[in-house]
Structure formats: C-alpha cells, structure tokens
C-alpha cells in the first residue's frame, strides 16, 4: 500500500515534452528521464496510467494550414500519439517496468484496443497502462482524452506535466506581478481563462470532480514529491 493519498493517477504528458531540447521528434535522454520519473511513482506503490500527446510529431491544426482536412489531420495526430506511446513503452520496459498500451483506434498488431476493465485490472496488478490514440475522435485533444480516461479508470487525479511550476494569475514570463496558486477551483480556471487544459477537458473534470495537479516536470523528483504529500504545483479542484 502506498504511503500517499494517491492510489491511482493518470499522468498527462504533452508530445512536446518528448522532444526534449529539440523542436520536434523524440529525444532519447528525455525518454530515459520520463521513464525514471514514472518509476519513482511505481516504487511508491502508485498505479500509473499515461496519456501522451503528439505535438512533437503532428497536430491536426497544422495540417489545415496545408490544405489537409482537419479530420484527417487529427487522425495523423492521433497516430503520432501511438508512436510516442510505443517509444515510452519500450523505455519503461528497459527499466523492467511492466506496461500495456491500449489504443482508442484498434490496431491489433501494435496494441490492444481500449478496454476499461482490462486496463483497470492491469493497473491493479502494477502494470503501467498507456492510453494511445487520444479519444479516437477528431476535433478533440489528448487533454480531453486524459480527462476521459482518468474518470473511466477512477483515477484519484490527473497529473498534468508542464514547463512551469503551477498555474499563475498571468503569464509569469510576461507579467512580473503574476502569482502562483497552490489551489484553484475549476470555476476560477474557466472564468479567468487560464490555460491549464482545453475547455472540454476542464469542463469534463469539473463535471466529474476529477482533480488536476499541474506541476513542473523538468524538476527531477516532482512526481514523487507530490505523491508524498509535498505542496508542489497547483491543484485544480471543485
Ligand atoms: N487528436 C485528436 N483527437 C484526440 C486526441 C488528439 O484528433 O482525441 C489529434 C489532434 O490533431 C491533436 C493531436 O492529435 O492536435 C495531438 O494531440 P495534442 O494536440 O493534444 O498533443 P499535445 O499538445 O499534448 O502534445
């Protein structure tokens, strides 16, 4: 049993994170770092599910600018999340961590299709479950996929990895008076139009009372710190 209030978390990683210092692609050093951060959660006995984006590979909106219909571009984006998921899976397994990928779009030779009960069973057995291909539907994001899957598997919270150490009243880079919140309500996030997750994802979390912990992934040990009860990042709550 974990010495933490979190038994099961859903970690949301953006695709950009996987690019590491580069603008796109997958950085080996970053994969190793991420896998070790995930391992630190598993070592505490916490069940970990992961949703990865594809900003390092392709987003549907980029295709639109080149004349690719949004729905097709979004399929490309969802396929990008599968590439990222396989990369992370292999890295986690190289550390001896058991993993399972489930995809929202069936692709039997690569992974098993999403199956809520099988996912929960695997998590319960200590397997890291990676949910790939977003929601399986265009016009959504992997933030929304993360919110959906977190609610489906009854996670205690979404751990939303970002480049900043929490949610600020304004962009801390541009506004020296910006203050960081330790806790903030979904309603405030929506009303202040703070860029935490997209509106669909936030609304879904609000409706289902799914807390979101926004934290800085670049600081080593942050996932373990949050799980151990340290006040790291910002918690979005009811
Ligand atoms: N996408 C989609 N439906 C989903 C999730 C993702 O169509 O349910 C597509 C969409 O084109 C999106 C891309 O996949 O831009 C990558 O996801 P996202 O932008 O959320 O990645 P991130 O910003 O987290 O790297």
Automatic annotation (TrEMBL):
ATP binds at residues 12-15, 55, 59, 162, 168, 171. Inhibited by UTP. The keyword Nucleotide-binding applies. Its main location: cytoplasm. It catalyses: UMP + ATP = UDP + ADP. Pathway: Pyrimidine metabolism; CTP biosynthesis via de novo pathway; UDP from UMP (UMPK route): step 1/1. Its EC number is 2.7.4.22. One of its GO terms (cellular component) is cytoplasm. InterPro entries: AceGlu_kinase-like_sf, Asp/Glu/Uridylate_kinase, Uridylate_kinase, Uridylate_kinase_bac. Keywords: ATP-binding, Cytoplasm, Kinase, Nucleotide-binding, Pyrimidine biosynthesis, Transferase. GO terms for biological process: 'de novo' CTP biosynthetic process; UDP biosynthetic process. It is found in: Cytoplasm. Homohexamer. NCBIfam families: pyrH_bact. Belongs to the UMP kinase family. This is Uridylate kinase.
């Amino acid at each position: 049993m974990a010495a933490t209030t979190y038994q099961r978390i859903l970690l949301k990683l953006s695709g950009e994170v996987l690019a590491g210092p580069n603008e796109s692609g997958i950085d080996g050093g970053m994969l190793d770092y991420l896998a070790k951060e995930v391992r630190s959660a598993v070592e505490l006995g916490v069940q970990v599910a992961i949703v990865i984006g594809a900003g390092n590979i392709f987003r549907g909106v980029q295709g639109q600018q080149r004349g690719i219909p949004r729905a097709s571009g979004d399929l490309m984006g969802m396929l990008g999340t599968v590439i990222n998921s396989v990369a992370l899976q292999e890295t986690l397994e190289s550390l001896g961590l058991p993993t399972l990928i489930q995809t929202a779009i069936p692709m039997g030779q690569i992974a098993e299709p999403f199956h809520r009960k099988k996912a929960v069973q695997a998590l319960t057995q200590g397997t890291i479950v990676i949910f790939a291909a977003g929601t399986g539907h265009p016009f959504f994001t992997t933030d929304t996929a993360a919110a959906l899957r977190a609610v489906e598997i009854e996670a205690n919270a979404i751990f939303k990895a970002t480049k900043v150490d929490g949610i600020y009243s304004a962009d801390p880079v541009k506004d020296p008076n910006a203050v960081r919140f330790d806790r903030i309500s979904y309603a405030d996030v929506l009303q202040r139009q703070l860029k935490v997750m997209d509106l669909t994802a936030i609304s879904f979390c609000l409706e289902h009372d799914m807390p979101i912990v926004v934290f800085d992934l670049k600081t080593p040990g942050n996932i373990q710190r949050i799980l151990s009860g340290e006040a790291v990042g910002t918690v979005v709550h009811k």
